[in-house]
Amino acid sequence: MKLAHDVAGDGAALVLLHAGVCDRRMWDGQRPALIDAGYRVVRCDLRGFGATPAADRPYNDADDVLALLDDLGIAQAAFVGASFGGHVALEIAARRPERVGALALLCAAMPGHEPSAELTALGEREEALLEEGDLDGATELMVESWLGPEAGEPARESVRLMQRHAFELQCAAEEFEKIEHEVDLAAVQAPCLAVSGAHDLADFRRIAARLPEILVDAEHVELPWAGHLPALERPSAVAELLIEFLRKTVPVG
């Protein structure tokens, strides 16, 4: 299965990987600025999100993204990953370090992270609502849990739309296990910007703070205004942050 995707711009390849409550539309606020900055921007929907159907067999998200890049003839790219998209980007960078020129991780999940009681409880509440068939309730739980205090109604409605669509795709399909690969984060060679939000769940703040201790070249920046989805909460500020990092690590010409 080829992931639904779009490609625009010229220059160094830049792959945007969405959060697990969103799809590739979450990058609408950054995509034009990144293209104008000289990057060839690739966005994709992971399986069961956006325009990509749910899985029809066991699969691995990192393998799917790598297959897409092979189809596009992209040997190496910079990656921007939000939340679960950050997990996927880290897995790619660890398993195939030659494919990754730089990493910008926004409130990323991390392979091997043991979830806190708070995060586990949130997942259990979500699952209970879905088992009851209450997609509206599960959607609102995600909107309330993952957006920070500065998120306006447009951001909330955007998450609501993307998450509800993902629930509909996933709940209507047979569930298949994901293929797990061994991931050694010490193998990551790309320079990394690890961003956390001061209003995010503690798990993701801890991950971002730990990454400079694990990776060979990483810096941590905490955004005092942000929740879990800063790209939606302050789109222009995140675009500027990404371009500043990318210009230092991935020259465009």
Automatic annotation (TrEMBL):
Among the GO molecular function terms of this UniProt record, one is: catalytic activity
Give every AB hydrolase-1 domain span: 14-240
Specify the protein name.
Pimeloyl-ACP methyl ester carboxylesterase
The protein's organism comes out as Saccharopolyspora kobensis
